[in-house]
Amino acid sequence: MPAVNLLISQLRSLMGWEDGMAALAWLLIPLVVGVCAGLWGSWANRTRKVRGDGPELDGYARFRAAMEKPPSRT
After folding, report:
1. Looking at the chain, which runs of residues are DSSP E strands?
2. pTM for this one?
């Protein structure tokens, strides 16, 4: 947070902001974070292609078949 405070104070001195404008700059931070969180949430909740259980069941059947074989003598 000190870096953000320093950035806002630098912007305030460069642009001649008053205290009200600095408060608006502080309010923009949660707004930007909220928009980013909303975008991430919509991306994380997107619809994905459904594969079904076919590949998993095939792999399990191969595993069971391998386990049922007698051990090989080497």
Report:
1. none
2. 0.43
